[in-house]
Amino acid sequence: MGAVIQGFAVENQQYAGGAWDWLNWFSILTGFSLLPAYALLGSTWLLIKTEGELYQKMSHYSLHLLVWLGYAMTAIQLITPFLTDAIRERWLTLPNFFYMGFVPMLGLMLYTWVYYVICFSDWERWPFAITLALLGTAYFTLITSLWPNIIPPHITTHEAAAPELSIRFALWGGVIIVPIILGYTYWSYHVFRGKVRDTEGYH
Length: 203
Prior knowledge:
The protein is mainly α and 203 residues long. The chain has 9 helices and 4 strands, in the order H-E-E-H-H-H-H-H-H-E-E-H-H. It has one domain.
């Protein structure tokens, strides 16, 4: 992700960089930032599925992970506008500054909300849902920083698109397959809904 934000060296529609161009301090920072993010998703999911001592442990872990995620998201948010001229212009010029600043403010509100819910509420399902929304704001920030480029800094989504025939074929495949995947996923979660208790399972 860090390498994508910084952009790739492209010449004549081909990658012109080296094998290790992706390895730098910012890509390492973003990589480590994903660790508390996905761990927090796991721990808040277990708040829905567990009870008793394990539930208390997950609540404790969730708070610590949330703190580390807050540090990571803040660092990336502050650093990203200064990585490239295009991102800096999009974020720090007027009136873009006011429009783009709405997303970090929404993220801060969600961050405060999930902290409150974990600490002071027994709404077991809300921490996971709010965490999803919080991470959604981070990815939305990434998209708005790079759009319309899909291969930064110069190749747009239109330029990188496959031939129209291939796109049509993929579209019809998605129309058929995606509903099946969504239906199966819903059924799987429906079957295994509720808490996992010590007295349940195979013996």
